Protein backbone atom coordinates (compact mmCIF):
# COMPACT_ATOMS: atom_id res chain seq x y z
CA UNK A 1 0.00 0.00 0.00
CA UNK A 2 1.31 3.38 -0.99
CA UNK A 3 2.35 5.65 1.79
CA UNK A 4 0.22 8.75 2.09
CA UNK A 5 1.91 11.88 0.88
CA UNK A 6 2.72 14.49 3.45
CA UNK A 7 3.87 18.08 3.56
CA UNK A 8 5.38 19.48 0.41
CA UNK A 9 4.55 16.42 -1.73
CA UNK A 10 0.90 16.51 -0.67
CA UNK A 11 0.67 20.21 -1.49
CA UNK A 12 2.19 19.63 -4.94
CA UNK A 13 -0.16 16.75 -5.62
CA UNK A 14 -3.20 18.77 -4.55
CA UNK A 15 -2.17 21.65 -6.79
CA UNK A 16 -1.66 19.29 -9.73
CA UNK A 17 -5.11 17.78 -9.24
CA UNK A 18 -6.79 21.17 -9.04
CA UNK A 19 -5.00 22.21 -12.22
CA UNK A 20 -6.20 19.06 -13.94
CA UNK A 21 -9.79 19.71 -12.86
CA UNK A 22 -10.13 23.42 -12.02
CA UNK A 23 -13.93 23.50 -11.84
CA UNK A 24 -16.15 21.92 -9.21
CA UNK A 25 -17.45 18.66 -10.66
CA UNK A 26 -20.74 18.72 -8.75
CA UNK A 27 -21.51 22.33 -9.64
CA UNK A 28 -20.63 21.62 -13.26
CA UNK A 29 -23.12 18.75 -13.33
CA UNK A 30 -25.75 21.35 -12.42
CA UNK A 31 -24.49 23.80 -15.08
CA UNK A 32 -22.92 26.03 -12.45
CA UNK A 33 -19.32 27.14 -12.90
CA UNK A 34 -17.47 27.24 -9.59
CA UNK A 35 -13.75 27.08 -8.98
CA UNK A 36 -12.76 23.82 -7.30
CA UNK A 37 -10.73 24.23 -4.13
CA UNK A 38 -10.71 20.70 -2.71
CA UNK A 39 -9.54 17.46 -4.33
CA UNK A 40 -12.02 14.99 -2.79
CA UNK A 41 -11.71 11.22 -2.48
CA UNK A 42 -14.68 9.64 -4.25
CA UNK A 43 -14.35 6.60 -2.00
CA UNK A 44 -12.98 7.90 1.31
CA UNK A 45 -9.62 6.54 2.42
CA UNK A 46 -11.31 5.45 5.64
CA UNK A 47 -13.63 3.28 3.55
CA UNK A 48 -10.87 1.61 1.57
CA UNK A 49 -10.59 4.19 -1.19
CA UNK A 50 -7.25 4.73 -2.90
CA UNK A 51 -5.20 7.90 -3.16
CA UNK A 52 -4.95 7.51 -6.95
CA UNK A 53 -6.05 10.22 -9.33
CA UNK A 54 -8.98 8.08 -10.50
CA UNK A 55 -10.42 8.20 -6.98
CA UNK A 56 -10.23 12.01 -6.92
CA UNK A 57 -12.83 14.57 -7.93
CA UNK A 58 -12.26 18.28 -7.46
CA UNK A 59 -15.02 20.14 -5.64
CA UNK A 60 -15.74 23.59 -4.25
CA UNK A 61 -15.83 23.90 -0.47
CA UNK A 62 -19.64 23.80 -0.31
CA UNK A 63 -19.96 20.64 -2.39
CA UNK A 64 -17.09 19.02 -0.55
CA UNK A 65 -18.86 19.63 2.71
CA UNK A 66 -22.12 18.23 1.37
CA UNK A 67 -20.35 15.17 -0.03
CA UNK A 68 -18.48 14.56 3.18
CA UNK A 69 -21.71 14.72 5.18
CA UNK A 70 -23.25 12.31 2.68
CA UNK A 71 -20.34 9.87 2.85
CA UNK A 72 -20.23 9.74 6.59
CA UNK A 73 -23.96 9.62 7.04
CA UNK A 74 -24.38 12.74 9.09
CA UNK A 75 -24.01 16.45 8.69
CA UNK A 76 -21.05 18.02 10.30
CA UNK A 77 -19.72 21.51 9.88
CA UNK A 78 -16.09 21.25 8.91
CA UNK A 79 -13.94 24.29 9.42
CA UNK A 80 -11.39 24.71 6.68
CA UNK A 81 -8.39 26.97 6.51
CA UNK A 82 -7.49 29.26 3.59
CA UNK A 83 -6.12 26.30 1.65
CA UNK A 84 -9.37 24.39 1.93
CA UNK A 85 -8.01 21.77 4.30
CA UNK A 86 -9.96 20.82 7.42
CA UNK A 87 -8.48 22.48 10.49
CA UNK A 88 -8.92 19.43 12.72
ZN1 LIG B 1 -19.50 22.88 -6.08
From TrEMBL:
Q: Quote the InterPro entries the UniProt record gives.
A: HNH (IPR002711), HNH_nuc (IPR003615)
Q: Where is each HNH nuclease domain found?
A: 12-65
Write one Gene Ontology MF term. Answer: nucleic acid binding
Gene3D superfamilies xref list = 1.10.30.50
The name this protein goes by in its record:
5-methylcytosine-specific restriction protein A
Specify the taxonomic lineage.
Answer: Bacteria, Pseudomonadati, Pseudomonadota, Alphaproteobacteria, Sphingomonadales
Family annotation (SMART domains):
HNHc (SM00507)
Q: Which Pfam families match?
A: HNH
Q: Transmembrane segments in this chain: where?
A: none
Amino acid sequence: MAERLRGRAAVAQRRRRLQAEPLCRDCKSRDIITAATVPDHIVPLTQGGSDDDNNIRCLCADCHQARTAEQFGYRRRIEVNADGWPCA
